[in-house]
Design a protein that fits this description.
The chain has 447 residues and is mainly alpha-helical. It has four domains: 9-69, Rossmann fold; 74-135, Orthogonal Bundle (Helicase, Ruva Protein, domain 3); 140-251, Zinc Finger, Delta Prime, domain 3, CATH 1.20.272; 291-447, GMP Synthetase, Chain A, domain 3 (2-Layer Sandwich), CATH 3.30.300. It has helices at 9-19, 41-52, 74-87, 94-104, 108-121, 128-135, 140-151, 155-167, 172-191, 203-212, 215-230, 238-251, 264-284, 291-298, 322-327, 333-340, 364-378, 395-415, 418-426, and strands at residues 29-33, 58-62, 342-348, 351-356, 383-388. Helix 1 runs parallel beside helix 2, helix 4 (94-104) packs parallel to helix 6 and helix 7 runs antiparallel to helix 8 (155-167). The chain is elongated. The chain starts with 8 loop residues before the first helix and ends in a 21-residue tail after the last helix. Keywords: Nucleotidyltransferase, Transferase.
């Protein structure tokens, strides 16, 4: 749209009426407005609200030689507020202006309006504390305490901080937003330390957390915070949604990061490992059992990573144990399908031969990824060979058989339930075919 020749309010109203409808065959509607400064005041005011809060499917590209009329970057808003307040001889703190600029969300008009409110609220001296109180923004001290508590897995301190925020009626939505912003700054401090400006009040804390957390941790916590913020409206209340988000940060940890902090899950894993070692020690003193019994007993415990691949057969590991081993591998996507739908047909030294019924699953990329996962899990390098043919003993086949057994058991249990029998007898009730769903088994070691 050429704003120089379509500068009236009628043309702009027509454009905005069309903008509200989602595109038919694309993700976005993109409006390019050239010479946008040529729009009349009424036309620009008509589109101003849409520019500040556009629909998710609309993108505006504005070309102008008059940047005073369009949404501005926060750094420009801060510079302009500094100039205005200096000329008005009003005291201010730079961090307070940054908060006002972020709250204005690109609108200089809103920034000036918020600044007027801050002057009245703070009785002339625009301080960071006053602006935070006016906006309901989170004190930086709470963020540093939260991250320190998460770093030490101090759940009691995390809950105490959440209670303090609730007692002060601070916004949990803004708390997650500020936490995401700080994690973003920490992530960049790890990659580009010069990105942390010394004039930032939180610069020292950002650098400290950049060395305290691994890059994988920061990325994980950032994702948890942003997802938790988007799900806050789905929670029973904001307090529950906020605290559950923090609990995720305490519960999850990148698996491949060195120096992992102790967590509840890690403690349980350690206990399970000790129990597994005790079980293996007791089994070592007993005679070797038959292959099916050995395979069944080995399912809860992973293969010892110190076991050389060429000695698996000596320990009784056979082709029949492949489904139980596959179930414990951390696989996903096509690699998981390859493992679940393949059958181990031979073990020859350090070479495993798999038979696959679907040739597309046996492509080199999937096979290499599966070989890497097996090597990491077993602790020894190995070679993986695939063949195309009919399969019988796969993890997918066994899972399907177990699902059928669970379904039959659930249907039989309901049919024999006295309460269900009474309902059918007294009220002529019937069981809707296909409505019975078996309860999925729970792995106690994961609780």
């Amino acid at each position: 749209m050429d704003a120089a020749s379509n500068r009236g309010v009628d043309e702009m109203a027509s454009l905005l009426e069309r903008a509200v409808y989602a595109p038919v065959n694309a993700r976005f509607k993109v409006y390019m407005i050239d010479e946008v400064h040529m729009l009349t005041n009424h036309a620009f005011n008509a589109m101003l609200k849409t520019l500040e809060e556009p629909p998710s499917h609309v993108k505006f590209i504005l070309a102008t030689t008059d940047p005073q009329k369009i949404p501005m970057p926060a750094v420009h808003i801060v510079a302009h507020l500094q100039k205005v307040l200096t000329e008005e001889k009003l005291g201010f703190e730079l961090q307070a202006l940054r908060l006002l600029a972020r709250a204005a969300d690109g609108s200089m008009r809103d920034a000036l309006s918020l600044t007027d409110q801050a002057i009245a609220y703070a009785a002339g001296q625009i301080s960071e504390e006053a602006v935070r109180g006016m906006l309901g923004a989170l004190d930086q001290h709470y963020l540093t305490r939260l991250l320190d508590a998460i770093a030490t897995s101090d759940g009691a301190e995390v809950l105490a901080i959440a209670d303090e925020l609730a007692a002060r009626s601070l916004s949990f939505l803004l708390a997650l937003q500020d936490l995401s912003t700080m994690l973003h700054q920490i992530a960049w401090a790890q990659v580009a330390p010069q990105s942390v400006l010394d004039e930032l009040p939180e610069a020292e804390d950002i650098r400290r957390f950049a060395s305290l957390f691994s890059p994988e941790q920061v990325q994980l916590y950032y994702q948890i915070a942003t997802i938790g913020r988007s799900e806050l409206g789905l929670a029973p209340d904001e307090y529950a949604g906020f605290t559950m988000t923090l609990l995720r940060m305490l519960a999850f940890y990148p698996a491949n990061t060195a120096g992992a902090r102790p967590t509840i899950a890690a403690s349980q894993a350690s206990q399970a490992s000790q129990a597994s070692q005790a079980s293996q020690a007791s089994q070592a003193s007993r005679p070797v059992e038959s292959v099916p019994e050995l395979a069944q007993a080995a399912m809860p415990n992973p293969v010892d990573v110190s076991t050389p691949i060429d000695s698996l057969m000596a320990l009784g590991f056979t082709e029949h144990d492949w489904p139980s081993l596959v179930a414990r591998l951390p696989l996903r996507g096509l690699v998981k399908e390859l493992a679940y739908r393949s059958e181990l047909v031979r073990i020859e030294g350090a070479t495993l031969t798999l038979k696959v019924s679907v040739a597309q699953l046996a492509e080199r990329l999937q096979v290499e990824k599966l070989r890497t996962a097996l090597t990491e899990y077993l602790g020894k390098p190995l070679k993986l060979v695939t063949e195309i043919g009919a399969v019988t003993q796969t993890a997918a086949v066994l899972d399907a058989a177990q699902n059928v057994q669970r379904q039959q058991a659930a249907e039989q249990a309901l049919a024999q339930d006295p309460f269900a029998q009474a309902l059918m007898r007294d009220f002529d009730a019937t069981i809707v075919p296909g409505s019975i769903k078996p309860v999925q088994p729970t792995n106690i070691s994961n609780i």
